[in-house]
TrEMBL record:
<comment type="similarity">
    <text>In the N-terminal section; belongs to the enoyl-CoA hydratase/isomerase family.</text>
</comment>
<dbReference type="GO" id="GO:0006635">
    <property type="term" value="P:fatty acid beta-oxidation"/>
</dbReference>
<dbReference type="InterPro" id="IPR036291">
    <property type="entry name" value="NAD(P)-bd_dom_sf"/>
</dbReference>
<comment type="similarity">
    <text>Belongs to the enoyl-CoA hydratase/isomerase family.</text>
</comment>
<keyword id="KW-0576">Peroxisome</keyword>
<dbReference type="Pfam" id="PF00725">
    <property type="entry name" value="3HCDH"/>
</dbReference>
<dbReference type="Pfam" id="PF02737">
    <property type="entry name" value="3HCDH_N"/>
</dbReference>
<dbReference type="GO" id="GO:0004300">
    <property type="term" value="F:enoyl-CoA hydratase activity"/>
</dbReference>
<dbReference type="GO" id="GO:0003857">
    <property type="term" value="F:(3S)-3-hydroxyacyl-CoA dehydrogenase (NAD+) activity"/>
</dbReference>
<dbReference type="Pfam" id="PF00378">
    <property type="entry name" value="ECH_1"/>
</dbReference>
<dbReference type="InterPro" id="IPR006176">
    <property type="entry name" value="3-OHacyl-CoA_DH_NAD-bd"/>
</dbReference>
<feature type="domain" description="3-hydroxyacyl-CoA dehydrogenase C-terminal">
    <location>
        <begin position="482"/>
        <end position="575"/>
    </location>
</feature>
<keyword id="KW-0443">Lipid metabolism</keyword>
<comment type="pathway">
    <text>Lipid metabolism; fatty acid beta-oxidation.</text>
</comment>
<dbReference type="GO" id="GO:0070403">
    <property type="term" value="F:NAD+ binding"/>
</dbReference>
<dbReference type="InterPro" id="IPR008927">
    <property type="entry name" value="6-PGluconate_DH-like_C_sf"/>
</dbReference>
<dbReference type="InterPro" id="IPR006108">
    <property type="entry name" value="3HC_DH_C"/>
</dbReference>
């Protein structure tokens, strides 16, 4: 796309003595090169034109300015830089006023802070969320915010990335005045006139004293300790602290210099690359061919079949999206249990003060339950969440086919079963789709939307619209055992089992995976989810397992003892008296040893790096297969699946982004090395070999579908 001209994205016009500078760079007025150049030109005009007595900055459209143009990160920098532009603006000797409506985030708030006065309209959102992108405010924000709001409050704003309302920003000292609802230019002009009438001049933020200078050093030490504990593995938070410390200890100009150095360190870090990838990837997954080709079918009334944990979680998501829900259960007892599961969620929110009892009653007014399928004849969309068994599901779909009105979307929440086979029992396979929610369904953001062979495009579009209404992150998947996430999971879990049998303890493997940035390791996850679940899957797959493939029986030995994890008090770990954090279990280690001996395996030692090379190589290799089979549309869909459904550390961007950052030749070389021990398990995916041969990476496949 050709870059716009500076005067098209920053328009200036004289209103009496006030030069109105309007930033108009849709969709969110990001500070790309042309905007920076336009702002600089506006500052120069204001400086040189005696008719200008004040400058008013406003944003066009729905935002003031949402920050630096994130798309420019990682590319060669184009002058003028934002710090330079803001320095010139701050130095103007005529008052500069920012009238803020909508988001003023990151570099956008930095523009406002370099102005001399700030007015905020209702709906303004002010924040410094750079930390979410692996960055710190790099255009003077770390030096100006402490001078407006105090060092500690500024540090907290930057470390949390949270947005402040207009009112909260005024209370914090970021904003001088609040305006009524209305046009930012009109409100800004009125404020400018008021300031001019008072004889107000330039009030440079960089020249202001730090309000909490006396108490800040001790508070900052405390905050630094907390940050080190909380921001596991993250690069930029400690540097944010360093910057605000510089604001406290150094003159303004030197503080800016320190900020620049630390900003550049963050900008060049792989964490910035991972987090920026995650930012765009999660906005990209809804851009699918069907969304362009078809309109969603209208829906307002849903039926959920089954009131277990999943069904209840989905019901809550649907109710929260403003939909009406009828839950179908077998009998009165199951109806009562289903309703209790739903109410438990709302009661939890009420107990935490996050919901008013009246709101619960109003929400539940849209909920009903029945034992009769005939009661859902008129619903627009059904989500089946019954027991994970193909025959049970087929029976449900025969019923749905019998009762549901024509055009009703019929969805299954299966996590791995063949949706084509389920669709085939109906007379309307075009209306059948998979909606794979993750547990707890009212909390987990990921929704795999599984498109079966005959699913109609408008049904796919409807599913994406449902995801949007439920505030889920949707990922389009194709039909195979486990779709995107669980299919890849099965393979890297198997790689972990191999490492276990070959010599690493489950505790070492969990520690390596946590060290990589996951909140939990795979054996902890198994204990949390229940070891019986994985055991059932293994038994189901036993009949089709290749007898020549390596199979590790250790997990079966644990499950056979009834050690299913937290719910039974022991699994891979011990949980005495209902403890939630497990203790290492010598008996488990003895079982592991016994199994190794049975197979004549002499245990060898693995470093955390050895463990992770295998874990990740297995993940990426299966990811490449999922791509070449068209199960995932793009590598970014796999990344988003793992970021939102499997606890993959966001700052690594997802497994495919991780592979790109490592370099695909290195990942392929690892796979080939491991293949020398087990050529069957470690067959390189042809797509991976092809990309390496062509000198390409996964990113090259991330084109909009
Ligand atoms: C920074 O400022 C660094 C400085 O300190 C240092 C400089 C030296 N750039 O989210 P939406 C796109 S770091 C480019 O769907 P919403 C977005 O991709 C930056 N593009 O809408 C999407 O594109 P598409 C600090 C951006 O209404 C479209 O805009 N700022 C940017 O739900 C709509 O976005 C931030 O981190 C950007 N900065 O939410 C703020 N922002 O239509 C990041 C958005 O092609 N942005 N886009 O998919 C946000 O938090 C939300 O986008 C916002 C709007 C709240 C503004």
């Amino acid at each position: 796309m050709p870059s716009p001209s500076p005067d098209s994205v920053v328009q200036t016009s004289l209103h009496g003595p006030v030069l109105v500078v309007r930033i108009d760079n849709p969709p969110v007025n990001a500070l790309g090169q042309a905007v920076r150049a336009g702002l600089l030109a506006a500052v120069e005009r204001a400086q040189g034109d005696d008719a200008v007595r004040a400058v008013l900055l406003v944003g066009a459209g729905k935002a003031f300015i949402a920050g630096a143009d994130i798309r420019e990160f990682g590319k060669p920098p184009q002058p003028p830089s934002l710090p330079e532009v803001l320095h010139r603006m701050e130095q103007l000797d005529k008052p500069v006023i920012a009238a803020i409506h909508g988001p003023a985030l990151g570099g956008g708030l930095e523009v406002a802070m370099a102005a001399h006065y700030r007015l905020a309209l209702p709906g303004a959102k002010l924040g410094l969320p750079e930390v979410n992108l692996g960055l710190l405010p790099g255009a003077g924000g770390t030096q100006r915010a402490p001078r407006l709001m105090g060092v500690v409050a500024a540090a907290e704003l930057m470390l949390s990335g949270k947005h402040l309302s207009a009112k909260a920003a005024q209370a914090a000292g970021l904003v001088d005045k609040l305006a009524e609802e209305g046009d930012p230019t009109a409100a800004g002009l009125a404020y400018a006139e008021e300031l001019l009438a008072q004889g107000a001049g330039a009030r440079r933020t960089g020249e202001l004293p730090i309000p909490d200078a006396a108490t800040a050093p001790a508070a900052l030490d405390q905050l630094a300790l907390e940050t080190a504990r909380k921001s596991r593995g993250l690069f930029s938070p400690a540097r944010i602290i360093e910057c605000v410390r510089a604001a406290l200890e150094l003159p303004f100009e030197q503080g800016l210099k320190r900020e620049r150095e630390l900003f550049m360190e963050c900008l060049n870090s792989p964490q910035r690359a991972g987090l920026v990838h995650a930012f765009f990837a999660e906005r990209e997954t809804a851009k699918i061919p069907e969304a362009r080709a078809a309109q969603p079918r209208p829906f307002a009334r849903l039926a959920i079949i089954g009131g277990g944990t999943m069904g209840a979680g989905i019901t809550v998501s649907a109710l929260d999206a403003g939909l009406a829900v009828t839950m179908i259960e077998r009998d009165a007892e199951s109806i009562a249990r289903g309703q209790a599961n739903v109410e438990k969620v709302y009661d939890g929110l009420i107990a935490k003060g996050r919901m008013k009892p009246e709101a619960k009653a109003a929400t539940l007014a849209r909920y009903r339950a029945s034992t009769s399928y005939d009661d859902i004849a008129e619903v627009d969309l059904v989500i089946e969440a019954v027991f994970e068994d193909i025959d049970v599901k087929k029976a449900v779909f025969r019923e749905l086919d019998r009762v549901c009105k024509s055009g009703c979307v019929l969805a299954t929440n299966t996590s791995y079963l063949d949706i084509d086979a389920i669709a085939a029992v109906t007379q309307r396979p075009q209306d059948v789709i998979g909606l794979h929610f993750f547990s707890p369904a009212n909390i987990m953001k990921l929704l795999e939307i599984v498109v079966a062979a005959k699913t109609a495009p408008d049904v796919v579009a409807t599913a994406f619209e449902l995801a949007r209404r439920m505030k889920k992150v949707p990922v389009r998947a194709g039909v195979c055992d486990g779709f995107i996430g669980n299919r890849i999971l099965a393979v890297y879990r198997e790689a972990a089992n191999h490492v276990l049998e070959d010599g690493a303890s489950p505790y070492e493997i969990d520690a390596a995976v946590r060290g990589f940035g996951y909140p939990m390791g795979p054996f902890q996850v198994s204990d949390l989810a229940g070891g019986d679940i994985g055991w059932a899957t293994r038994k189901r797959k036993a009949a089709t397992r290749d007898p020549k493939a390596r199979y590790v029986e250790i997990a079966d030995r644990i499950a056979e003892r009834g050690w299913f994890g937290q719910k039974t008090g022991r699994g891979w770990y011990l949980y005495p008296q209902g403890a939630r954090t497990g203790q290492e279990d010598p008996e488990v280690l003895a079982i592991v040893d016994e199994e190794r001996q049975k197979k004549g395996i002499t245990p060898r030692s693995f470093t955390h790096e050895d463990i992770m090379r295998r874990y990740m190589a297995a993940m990426v290799n299966e990811g490449a297969r999922v791509l070449e089979e068209g199960i995932a549309l793009r590598p970014l869909d796999i990344d988003v699946t793992f970021l939102f459904g499997y606890g993959f550390p966001r700052w690594r961007g997802g497994p495919m982004k991780w592979a790109d950052i490592q370099g695909l030749p290195k990942v392929l070389a690892d796979i080939r090395e491991f293949a020398q021990e087990d050529p069957q398990f470690w067959q390189p995916a042809p797509l991976l070999e092809k990309l390496v041969a062509e000198g390409r990476d996964f990113e090259s496949l991330n084109r909009p579908a």
